Amino acid sequence: MKDPVRIAITGGAGQISYSLIFRIAAGDMLGPDQPVILQLLEIPQAMEALNGVVMEINDCAFPLVRDIVATDDPNVAFKDIDYGLLVGSKPRGPGMERKDLLEANAAIFSVQGKALNDHASRDVKVLVVGNPANTNALIASCNAPDLDAGQFTAMTRLDHNRAMTQLAQKTGRHVNDVESLIVWGNHSATQYPDISQCRVDGKPALELVERDWYESDFIPTVQQRGAAIIKARGASSAASAAAAAIDHMHDWALGSDGIVSMSIPADGSYGIEEGIIYSYPVRCKGGSYEIVQGFEIDAFSREKMQATENELREERAAVEHLLG
Ligand code: NAD
Ligand code: LMR
Questions:
Q1: I need a surface site. Which of 83, 175, 201, 314 has the fewest CB within 10 A?
Q2: Active site amino acids
Q3: Is 39 annotated to bind ligand?
Q4: How is 83-139 classified by DSSP, letter by letter?
Q5: Which among 111, 102, 121 has a CA at the least distance from the CA of 143?
Q6: Which atom of ligand 1 is nearest to the CA of 187?
Q7: Of the bound ligands, which one is closest to the alpha carbon of residue 133?
Q8: Ligand 2: which atom is nearest the Cα of residue 131?
């Protein structure tokens, strides 16, 4: 058995966490030989509910769980953590866009960025799930000047997974047959789920589907999937969001099987300027991720990649005062 690692999960009493924490505790994120110490953060009003969650974790008698910390102080929750899953924040309701949450949630991520800077392990890997995830990750990163910006990522893996299934179902294949699908840009309705580089069972995806289906059905369905779930469930996605968070952290820590989509600091690759957290195709190996270079970008893709970059720049401008 390895030494335990410390994992902070914020919003520990919320609906995503109710799935996420138990899967992490079961070993789904870091493997069956990796003991964990869970450090759960909530706001004071939700501490009683969080204590209920702690009681349930204890009642599972998980072999991998070595300790549980439940707190309303980010300085305690982030002490020495190796992994930080920043989920805690308000979800949107029907009729809202995720960026409508910017004002309500942005302050959370400046406070938490500072606490990560002061208390987390110097190698911490941070995933922001709380919306608008990309810009919240930027806020956290800018408030943590002693950590590398590359340690802050945001979640577009849910969009990636959604797109994989849409394409697999359309082509009558399984998600295991789909490779090199890319989600570019923001976790928002401007994201660009791109199948132009994608192969299904070894064949180019664009030869298997009609162009009209790709442009008028697939892209909007993936872009609007979060809203469709809110409409159907009366609450935003939770178990699928938790599954995507597990996939994101699992691959970052232990390596990915092929190309996956991660929102990471833009570094100029594919003409996307630095200063925003943008979803790219990456490969993960040995605890790091690397942008997959060399894809040819046609005019259709360029326009879509630009539109989602523009939105991220607008979001950044709206929170300039929180960027330190
Ligand atoms: P929820 O309301 O069920 O839970 C959120 C929890 O966060 C609550 O228990 C709340 O008390 C807590 N919280 C609020 N402020 C906090 C703070 N400062 N510190 C610690 N905890 C705090 O919401 P949910 O359904 O679990 O969703 C959480 C967030 O994740 C929302 O912003 C939602 O939009 C987002 N989300 C993102 C994705 C994605 O793909 N990136 C997917 C689904 C949901
Ligand atoms: C999702 O994509 O399901 C989440 O970001 C929740 C939402 O607001 O759509």
A1: 314
A2: 187
A3: no
A4: EEEE--SPPP-TT--GGGGHHHHHHHHHHHHHHHHHHS-TT-EEEE-SSSHHHHHHH
A5: 111
A6: 41
A7: 1
A8: 5
What's the one-letter identity of residue 253?
A
Ligand 1 centroid to Cα of residue 235, in Å, is 11
Name the 3-class secondary structure at 218: helix
Residue 234 among known ligand-binding residues: no
Kindly report the length of the chain.
324
User: What ipTM was reported for this prediction?
Assistant: 0.99
Our mutation pick for probing the ligand 1 site, out of 90, 183, 237, counting the most ligand atoms within 8 A of Cβ, is 90
- Give the CA diameter of the chain: 55
Provide the total of helices (H) and of strands (E) in the chain, helices listed first. Answer: 11, 14
